[in-house]
Amino acid sequence: MDPPQPRQTRSGAIYAAYIGVNSDFGFEEALLESIVRDREEDYADPFVNPTVPGSLTPTSPTSVFPSSSSPSPSFSDAASAPPAPRTTTDRSASSPSCSSSLAPKDISQRKKQQKQKEKSKMRRQQQRLAVKIPLTNATPVAGNLFRKIARKSATVAAPIPLEACEVAKSGFVGRKATFTPRIFLLKQLVGPSSLNFRLVRWDGISPMHVFDRSRRAIVILAGQPRDSGWLEVLAHATAAMNNARLMGNFSAQAIDHSRGKFPTLASGFAHGGGRTEPSSQRPRDSVNARLVDGLLAAFERIASFQSQEVLHAWQPRLHQYFSKMVQTFTSQEPGLKRNWPRSVFSSAVWNLGPQTACYKHLDFANVPFGLCAITALGSFNPIRSGHIVLWRLNLVIEFPPGATALIPSAVIPHGNTPVQSDETCFSFTQYCSGGLFRWMEHGMQCDRTYFESLSEDDTLANCEKDARRWELGLSLLTTEKELEEQME
Asked: What's the pTM?
């Protein structure tokens, strides 16, 4: 084959020759297949052919185990080994040439045992090749300990009560709103000649919370778990997001959308946005689906922290409300699966950057009295950039990489300031769509079928219930008094 020649364009520019590489090639899968193929050739028939290393002879009581030159078997392999053959005084029996005189039944049993050993070795090879984060090194923070940490939490007062925000008439979702797609710099929000937002300094570790005028905890700046494995978890998760950005198949619409100019991937299940029924958010593209599987594995610890250690500790009633909904759908709808067993959020989205900068936007399709969990990742200076902006609260909050926050994304417009040109910024969010709660409360059916089944009195009662839903939903949020009682 002739070597590739340099390429010359019509303008006369000459480019070096290159050879394309198949991006779908899986090195780990090919390595594993090669190992398995070599094993099958080496152990083609170790009981009949005495020239194969580790072959067995019928004379020695310990010959049911491989020789010292073979890999050491596991205890599970030895426990399941067949009984050793009895020792015989017949010298001819100790000769390798007599190995072919074994009964067919004994040969079959030993072949089965050897096959089991090979399967065990293959599993160990797969475990060594697999890239996993040891979750045992990341011990979850207990609820009581988290409350002790929260006891020293700083408090920020919001200028408005949350009930002043507008929601849909039914109370299941927020009120739709559109904004001019625009990125705001920090100097445009705080300081002289700015919009006079309040800058909140946050180290991303010490917990803080924001109360509205009704003294509800509406924003939780939870920080990070205090365990030694967290930095390793963040590094692995960031690498998985960057890999998904490079390897994913994204259309132009998927990169330039209402929230910004960056690719995204989603997983879980939702209802609304044109869906006629609750459906899975898993990508249909096979490449993106495999990338989502890798992200689900890499973000299990982070998702668990958002749900079980932040939402559960700070908003226990809301956590229970979310948990009931997710359990209802996963038990009654076989096609809908939760992303992680320790997460009560129905949906997850990865904003793949590499310099994620969200426009001012409103996730109005989310349940309005619920909170959305956000974790920032990447490498950037949180003092200069990457701030989270909460518009109706007039707050600009420093949001360091690795930190987690809960915000009412359906009723408070939000976004973030851009990072520097030499920095990277990714984000991971979990949320619950309001349409799922509507579907559940309407008897796991669409609105049309539900309202057709109601009598006139039932319709009036349903309208009254819709009118009270926003107020009842706000009662799920933890109040300042409740936090003080829990921390005593």
From this structure: 0.70
